[in-house]
Amino acid sequence: MKYWQKAIKFPLLSLIIGLIISQILFVGNCHAQSFTFEGNRKKSVMDFDLVKNLIIIPIYINGKGPFNFILDTGVGSLIITDPSLLDTLSLKNLRGTKIYGLGQGQEIEAFISNDVGVKIKEASIQHIPTTILKTDVFNLSSYMGKKIYGLIGYYFFNSFLVKVNYTTQRLAFFSPQAKTRKRGSKFPIEMQNKNPYITVEMQTPQKTNIKAKLIIDCGASHALSMEALNGEAFPLPNPTIFANLGLGLSGLISGHVGRIPLLKLGKYSFKNVLSSFPAYESVAAQIGYNTRNGNLGAELLRRFDITFDYQNLAVYFKPNQSYQAPFDHDMSGMEVYADTENSPRFFVGRIEPDSPAEKAGFLEQDELIGIDLKRIDFYSLEEITNLLKSADGKTVVIEIIRKDKNIIKLLKLKKRI
């Protein structure tokens, strides 16, 4: 059986994909595995959507599409999370496998294939290693508020020099032979199992200065996730809040949320960085704590415009207008998800114990129909998420439907960490 090291993080903590997927072996694949441009083209540029810090791009698969995929430095093979594409793409020569995952529960079933071709703008690849989940265990569409079919990462980044401009939401990618200026401070990276690692300086909650090896993961919407230190659970700060950090392939992952006093990336310094601390037995002890200390996610990465240069084992960071933005945490204590098949509609998901949402009397499956005297269709899921972490002490008026009854709730936001 295969073992995946990937966790999908849910909206309560503005987390998604916080860990790395281990390499799945594609036996018998001897095809070239790189994207190439059509003709003499050496560059392409495209817009992307940015939702919960995550980059969404349209891709074509086997000539069909476009399909929304998350661009993710934390995955190796192409991951199709929505099994409805099996019928749409009429894929053949599928091989079944079972995958163990993070969290508590049973393994899940998946297919692997080498007969998938992908096109992104004028670039294409044939026979990209692909994993297709038989069940949409992550339900990314509900988390993102728009239809999402999966994740793409290593084979795109390894084929080009890739520039991500978070400010303009533009993606530029160049053939390795193209001449282009790399802006920003250069940092070396190490590639392991198709994932980029960077070493940063950090101060632990106990004021010990360390060098931490982190995965650069633009597919993780949190700022930081710390898993292990010296073969043990990473020391927790004080205070923390206990939280469900997300969903692994095999069930819920619990842990804490707190702040790291100081993180230094070369000449760039960040104080009081919001971090998750997954339960050691749920994550680090399962995946091998000797490989890394944690995960550097998009809530921190979005403060830079970034150039990824896998070919030369380097990454370039250039601060942008979000560089000094505070590291805000959800102040409601409830997650909101979308039913993208219907309009969308928005519902309350998990509620944190002793949180403002619990104290205000919200229940799971309450449907939101209005916020601050405006109909819910005036809001996107991204806007709702931002509103729920907007200001300590702010009161938000929320109208819900529960068992066919309209109810008005006053939710007073509270900075909990």
Describe the structure.
- The protein is mainly beta and 417 residues long.
- Helix content is 8%, strand content 44%.
- It is built from 7 helices and 35 strands.
- Strands 1, 3, 5, 6, 7, 8, 9, 10, 11, 12, 13 and 14 form a 12-stranded mixed sheet that branches.
- A hairpin with a 5-residue loop joins strand 19 and strand 20 (209-216).
- The longest helix is centred in the last third of the chain and has 7 residues, at 381-387.
- It is globular.
- 45% of the residues are buried.
- Mean pLDDT is 87; it is low at 1-28.
Short characterization:
This protein is mainly beta and 417 residues long. 8% of the residues lie in helices and 44% in strands. A hairpin with a 2-residue loop joins β22 (228-229) and β23.
Give the amount of beta strand, in percent. 35-45%
Number of strands: 35
Major sheet description:
12 strands, mixed
Q: Structural class, from helix and strand content? A: mainly beta
Mean pLDDT: 87
Question: What's the Cα radius of gyration?
Answer: 21 Å
Shape, per Cα inertia axes: globular
> Which spans of ≥5 residues are poorly predicted at pLDDT below 50?
1-28
**Count of helices?**
7
Helix content: under 10%
Compute the separation of the termini in Å. Answer: 40 Å
List key phrases describing it.
single chain, 417 residues, mainly beta, 12-stranded mixed β-sheet, 9-stranded mixed β-sheet, 7 helices, 35 strands, 8% helix, 44% strand, disordered N terminus
